[in-house]
Amino acid sequence: MSLSLARCVEAVARLLDSCGPLEPVRLCMSARDVQAEVCAGGPAASQSMARLSAATGSEGCGRAGDRDDGVLTADLEDGLVLVAAVDPPRRRTALGRPRATSTSAAAGLLRTLVPWTASLDQELLPDVQLWVEDHGEDFTVRLVMSAASEDELDRVAAAAGTGLGRVRTWRTDSGLDGQGSLPCGRTVQLGVVRLP
After folding, report:
1. In this structure, are residues 44 and 15 in contact, taking their beta carbons and an 8 Å threshold?
2. Residue 160: CA atoms inside 13 Å, Cβ hemisphere, count?
3. Phi and psi for 143 in degrees, rounded to 5?
4. What is the pLDDT of residue 60?
5. What pLDDT, on the 0 to 100 scale, is given for residue 6?
6. Distance from the CA of 26 to the CA of which of 15, 38, 91, 175 falls in 20 to 30 A?
7. What is the C-alpha separation between 46 and 170, in angstroms, rounded?
8. Distance CA 111, CA 6 (A)
9. Residue 18 near residue 55 (C-beta atoms within 8 A)
10. Backbone dihedral region of 151: left (phi > 0), alpha (psi from -120 to 50 degrees) or beta?
11. Which helix (H) or strand (E) is 75 found in, with range?
12. Predicted pLDDT at 196
């Protein structure tokens, strides 16, 4: 069971709850750390980084002038480390669409992922990463892991599919890609990278 990944997901959900509204955030979580990229620019990015800073009790570094391109590093709990930074907006701003997601919805999504992440086999998936990306319109959930050889690809993909329904995988140049569905209906993308 991947209790460490599940603890990370729970900790990040609590962090998002304590931050208040943020611009869309791209999260990469593992058993040891979480990377958060605020997908905004200008004052909106500064405000989101300030809220993350206040919620963690840490200060960002590397800010220049009125740009908020600094990095925030904070210890969350149980040895979990947060690294947060700003990344320029992608889809929503470019298309001019209003935001349909929220920080509280992201925290709620993370809470629905906790039981599934707890069921993952930590021995078979030691370096697994869970990516949750807020596109402003919806969320993408992706589980990324590695396999040491071609022979391990299917075994690792099967372990990653634990708790998912309608799992499909297909070969790629770098390993396997796939997808499955959580009991709530949310699609989870799978990626198994074959190490050289």
Report:
1. no
2. 33
3. -105, 125
4. 63
5. 93
6. 175
7. 41
8. 9
9. yes
10. alpha
11. strand 71-75
12. 83
Which whole-number Å values give the CA distances from 104 to 17, 18, 71, in the listed order? Answer: 6, 10, 23
CB neighbour list of residue 4: distance below 8 Å, 6 or more residues apart = 31, 32, 122
DSSP-assigned states of every residue in 4-70: HHHHHHHHHHHHHHHH-S-S-EEEEE-SSEEEEEEE--HHHHHHHHHHHHHHHT---B--BTTB---
> Angle at CA 70, nearest 5°, toward 49 and 94?
70
Low-confidence ranges of the chain (pLDDT < 70): 1-3, 60-69, 89-96
Q: In 3-state terms, what secondary structure has residue 180?
A: strand
The span from the CA of 192 to the CA of 154, in Å, is: 9
pTM score, two decimals? 0.90
- Which DSSP category does 182 fall into? -
Break the chain down into helix, strand, coil percent, rounded to 5: 35, 35, 35
Give the whole-angstrom CA distance, residue 81 versus residue 73: 7
Residue 92: the pLDDT is: 47
Residue 129 · residue 168 · CB < 8 Å: no
Q: How far apart are CA 49 and CA 69, in angstroms?
A: 10
Q: Which two tokens stand for residue 111?
A: 């809470």
Neighbours of 156 (CB within 10 A): 23
CB neighbours (10 Å) of residue 30?
19
| SS3 state at 95 | helix
